[in-house]
Amino acid sequence: MRLRNKPGAMETIKDNSQYILTDGSLWKGKWQERFAKEQPIHIEVGSGKGQFIVEMAKAHPDINYVSIELQTNAMISVLEKQLVEQLPNLQLLLVNGADLTDFFAEGEVSQIYLNFSDPWPKKKHAKRRLTYKTFLKTYETISKSGAQLHFKTDNQGLFEYSLASLSQYGMVLNQVWLDLHGSDYEGNIMTEYEEKFSAKGQPIYRLEATFKEK
């Protein structure tokens, strides 16, 4: 995803430090202090323009959410939404999601969302897929015992790979959807990509999996 540079992006980020961070390591183990109330923390790795995470925070005020995105211009779109909503249970983190153990302490997170991640289709790039075993290990490290991972994609190859990767890692697959929008699943909140792909008639794949008890 390539976005046009937004003028004054870094100034906007600096002016709204109550909502957005560029150095999450300062809050490692202390994320609850960033929120109005102490509640379970859910994170989305790769939030894009933020439609999913903002709507989730609006729908579930009893959960604290952290939006994680590497691209500044994408995160500015999330921040713009947050400046309108001013949700007390949403924080933004502009960092590389590959380094989550630098920003979250062991057992600090209750749930993780991966939505429409880059499929990295070539086999030689498998280690870059966000459901590769090293990423799963990172997620497990920062998560509470028995935490869940929720994953959505339009890419069949990535979905099949992820099913195998999670199973081989020892995770329990709770539910799997091969056509999410054609199912009876309720409460689905779509991302911008999801709206685009589903409008073209592409099936959306989804899974919920649980890490083994620690």
TrEMBL record:
It catalyses: guanosine(46) in tRNA + S-adenosyl-L-methionine = N(7)-methylguanosine(46) in tRNA + S-adenosyl-L-homocysteine. Pfam families: Methyltransf_4. Substrate binds at K122, D154, T191, E192, Y193, E194. SUPFAM superfamilies: S-adenosyl-L-methionine-dependent methyltransferases. One of its GO terms (cellular component) is tRNA methyltransferase complex. The keyword Methyltransferase applies. InterPro entries: SAM-dependent_MTases_sf, tRNA_(Gua-N-7)_MeTrfase_Trmb, tRNA_methyltr_TrmB_bact. The keyword Methyltransferase applies. PANTHER family: 3-DEOXY-D-MANNO-OCTULOSONIC-ACID TRANSFERASE/TRNA GUANINE-N 7 - -METHYLTRANSFERASE (PTHR23417), PENTACOTRIPEPTIDE-REPEAT REGION OF PRORP DOMAIN-CONTAINING PROTEIN (PTHR23417:SF14). NCBIfam families: PRK00121.2-2 (NF001080), tRNA (guanosine(46)-N7)-methyltransferase TrmB (TIGR00091). Catalyzes the formation of N(7)-methylguanine at position 46 (m7G46) in tRNA. Belongs to the class I-like SAM-binding methyltransferase superfamily. TrmB family. This is tRNA (guanine-N(7)-)-methyltransferase. It comes from Vagococcus bubulae. The gene is trmB.
